[in-house]
Amino acid sequence: MPHSRWNDVGAESFTACGLPVLVAGEESGVAMASSPDGFRQIYFQGHPEYDHNSLLKEYRRDLQQYREGNSERAPYLPEHYLTPAGIRLANAYLESGAPISDFPEAALLEEVDVTWRDTAKALFANWLGLVYQLTHQDRRLQFMDGINPADPLGRLRR
Question: Which PANTHER family match (predicted)?
Fold first, then answer.
Protein backbone atom coordinates (compact mmCIF):
# COMPACT_ATOMS: atom_id res chain seq x y z
CA MET A 1 0.00 0.00 0.00
CA PRO A 2 1.24 3.54 -0.54
CA HIS A 3 3.49 4.53 2.35
CA SER A 4 3.66 8.07 3.66
CA ARG A 5 6.63 10.08 2.43
CA TRP A 6 6.38 12.54 5.31
CA ASN A 7 5.74 10.24 8.25
CA ASP A 8 8.06 7.52 9.46
CA VAL A 9 7.68 6.27 12.99
CA GLY A 10 10.09 3.42 13.60
CA ALA A 11 9.18 0.06 15.10
CA GLU A 12 11.12 0.92 18.26
CA SER A 13 8.88 3.93 18.88
CA PHE A 14 5.73 1.87 18.52
CA THR A 15 6.93 -0.95 20.76
CA ALA A 16 8.24 1.52 23.38
CA CYS A 17 4.65 2.76 23.68
CA GLY A 18 3.30 -0.77 24.00
CA LEU A 19 1.89 -0.78 20.47
CA PRO A 20 2.52 -4.03 18.61
CA VAL A 21 3.77 -3.73 15.05
CA LEU A 22 1.54 -5.84 12.81
CA VAL A 23 3.04 -5.21 9.37
CA ALA A 24 6.52 -3.93 8.50
CA GLY A 25 8.90 -4.15 5.59
CA GLU A 26 12.67 -3.80 5.36
CA GLU A 27 12.42 -0.90 2.90
CA SER A 28 9.15 0.69 3.94
CA GLY A 29 9.37 0.30 7.70
CA VAL A 30 6.23 0.00 9.80
CA ALA A 31 3.05 -0.04 7.75
CA MET A 32 0.58 -1.03 10.47
CA ALA A 33 0.48 -1.20 14.25
CA SER A 34 -2.32 -1.51 16.77
CA SER A 35 -3.33 -0.63 20.28
CA PRO A 36 -2.12 -3.16 22.87
CA ASP A 37 -5.39 -5.10 22.65
CA GLY A 38 -4.78 -5.70 18.95
CA PHE A 39 -7.97 -4.21 17.56
CA ARG A 40 -9.41 -1.04 19.11
CA GLN A 41 -7.02 1.28 17.36
CA ILE A 42 -5.18 0.54 14.13
CA TYR A 43 -2.34 2.81 13.05
CA PHE A 44 -1.34 3.11 9.41
CA GLN A 45 1.70 4.96 8.13
CA GLY A 46 0.52 4.31 4.64
CA HIS A 47 -2.62 5.11 2.76
CA PRO A 48 -4.80 2.06 2.20
CA GLU A 49 -7.64 4.42 1.31
CA TYR A 50 -5.84 5.88 -1.72
CA ASP A 51 -7.56 5.56 -5.06
CA HIS A 52 -5.70 4.67 -8.26
CA ASN A 53 -5.02 8.33 -9.10
CA SER A 54 -4.16 9.70 -5.63
CA LEU A 55 -0.39 9.29 -5.90
CA LEU A 56 -0.35 10.68 -9.42
CA LYS A 57 -2.18 13.82 -8.25
CA GLU A 58 0.30 14.24 -5.40
CA TYR A 59 3.20 13.78 -7.80
CA ARG A 60 1.73 16.37 -10.20
CA ARG A 61 1.21 18.83 -7.34
CA ASP A 62 4.81 18.37 -6.15
CA LEU A 63 6.10 18.66 -9.70
CA GLN A 64 4.21 21.93 -10.11
CA GLN A 65 5.83 23.23 -6.91
CA TYR A 66 9.21 22.32 -8.36
CA ARG A 67 8.49 23.94 -11.72
CA GLU A 68 7.34 27.13 -9.96
CA GLY A 69 10.62 27.26 -8.01
CA ASN A 70 9.07 26.41 -4.65
CA SER A 71 11.09 23.20 -4.32
CA GLU A 72 14.80 22.71 -4.92
CA ARG A 73 14.52 19.33 -6.60
CA ALA A 74 12.04 17.46 -8.71
CA PRO A 75 9.91 15.01 -6.74
CA TYR A 76 10.64 11.32 -6.89
CA LEU A 77 8.19 9.13 -8.75
CA PRO A 78 6.15 6.97 -6.39
CA GLU A 79 7.81 3.57 -6.14
CA HIS A 80 5.99 0.43 -7.31
CA TYR A 81 3.18 2.55 -8.77
CA LEU A 82 3.73 2.93 -12.50
CA THR A 83 4.45 0.26 -15.06
CA PRO A 84 7.87 0.45 -16.77
CA ALA A 85 6.19 2.25 -19.70
CA GLY A 86 4.67 4.73 -17.24
CA ILE A 87 8.04 5.38 -15.65
CA ARG A 88 9.57 6.07 -19.07
CA LEU A 89 6.70 8.43 -19.94
CA ALA A 90 6.96 10.33 -16.64
CA ASN A 91 10.73 10.64 -16.92
CA ALA A 92 10.47 11.85 -20.53
CA TYR A 93 7.98 14.51 -19.48
CA LEU A 94 10.20 15.62 -16.60
CA GLU A 95 13.28 15.83 -18.83
CA SER A 96 11.38 17.74 -21.52
CA GLY A 97 10.78 20.73 -19.28
CA ALA A 98 7.25 21.01 -20.70
CA PRO A 99 4.78 23.16 -18.74
CA ILE A 100 2.64 21.53 -16.08
CA SER A 101 -0.39 22.07 -18.34
CA ASP A 102 1.17 19.42 -20.63
CA PHE A 103 1.51 16.87 -17.82
CA PRO A 104 0.45 13.53 -19.39
CA GLU A 105 -1.98 12.62 -16.61
CA ALA A 106 -4.43 10.63 -18.75
CA ALA A 107 -1.64 8.61 -20.36
CA LEU A 108 0.03 7.99 -17.00
CA LEU A 109 -3.25 6.84 -15.45
CA GLU A 110 -3.27 4.07 -18.04
CA GLU A 111 0.10 2.94 -16.65
CA VAL A 112 -0.82 2.89 -12.94
CA ASP A 113 -0.40 -0.49 -11.29
CA VAL A 114 -2.76 -0.53 -8.30
CA THR A 115 -1.41 -3.36 -6.18
CA TRP A 116 -2.83 -2.38 -2.80
CA ARG A 117 -6.60 -2.11 -3.31
CA ASP A 118 -7.51 -5.74 -2.57
CA THR A 119 -5.21 -5.77 0.45
CA ALA A 120 -6.75 -2.55 1.76
CA LYS A 121 -10.28 -3.92 1.35
CA ALA A 122 -9.31 -7.13 3.16
CA LEU A 123 -7.70 -5.19 6.03
CA PHE A 124 -10.78 -3.07 6.61
CA ALA A 125 -13.22 -5.94 6.14
CA ASN A 126 -11.31 -8.20 8.54
CA TRP A 127 -11.00 -5.45 11.14
CA LEU A 128 -14.72 -4.63 10.95
CA GLY A 129 -15.49 -8.35 11.20
CA LEU A 130 -13.34 -8.57 14.32
CA VAL A 131 -15.09 -5.59 15.90
CA TYR A 132 -18.42 -7.27 15.11
CA GLN A 133 -17.32 -10.56 16.69
CA LEU A 134 -16.17 -8.93 19.92
CA THR A 135 -18.63 -6.07 20.45
CA HIS A 136 -21.82 -6.65 22.40
CA GLN A 137 -25.14 -5.91 20.70
CA ASP A 138 -26.18 -3.92 23.76
CA ARG A 139 -24.42 -0.59 23.24
CA ARG A 140 -24.05 -0.18 27.00
CA LEU A 141 -21.82 -3.27 27.14
CA GLN A 142 -18.43 -3.18 25.51
CA PHE A 143 -17.80 -6.85 24.77
CA MET A 144 -19.82 -9.94 23.93
CA ASP A 145 -20.40 -12.36 26.79
CA GLY A 146 -17.35 -14.53 27.37
CA ILE A 147 -14.82 -11.97 26.06
CA ASN A 148 -12.05 -11.12 28.52
CA PRO A 149 -11.66 -7.30 28.46
CA ALA A 150 -8.00 -7.68 29.43
CA ASP A 151 -7.37 -9.97 26.44
CA PRO A 152 -10.22 -9.58 23.94
CA LEU A 153 -8.41 -11.55 21.22
CA GLY A 154 -7.48 -14.42 23.54
CA ARG A 155 -10.54 -16.44 22.59
CA LEU A 156 -9.62 -16.19 18.92
CA ARG A 157 -6.04 -17.40 19.47
CA ARG A 158 -7.13 -20.73 20.92
Answer: HOMOSERINE O-SUCCINYLTRANSFERASE
User: What is this structure's pTM?
Assistant: 0.79
Specify the pLDDT at position 157: 72
Residues of the chain with pLDDT under 70: 158
* Distance (Å) of CA 122 to CA 39, 42, 54, 81: 15, 14, 20, 20
Residues 6+ apart with CB under 8 A from 143: 134, 135, 136, 149, 152
Strands 42-44 and 21-25: unpaired
CA dist 90 and 55 (Å) reads 13
Q: Where are the alpha helices (DSSP H) in 51-96?
A: 54-67, 84-96
SS3 6: coil
Residues 6+ apart with CB under 8 A from 90: 59, 77, 82, 104, 108
Contact 99, 109 (CB under 8 A): no
Domain boundaries, the chain: 1-49, 54-109
Q: Is 82 exposed, middle or buried (0-12, 13-18, 19+ CB in 10 A)?
A: buried
Q: In 3D, which of 156, 127, 139, 132 has the Cα closest to residue 39?
A: 127
Q: How far apart are CA 156 and CA 158, in angstroms?
A: 6
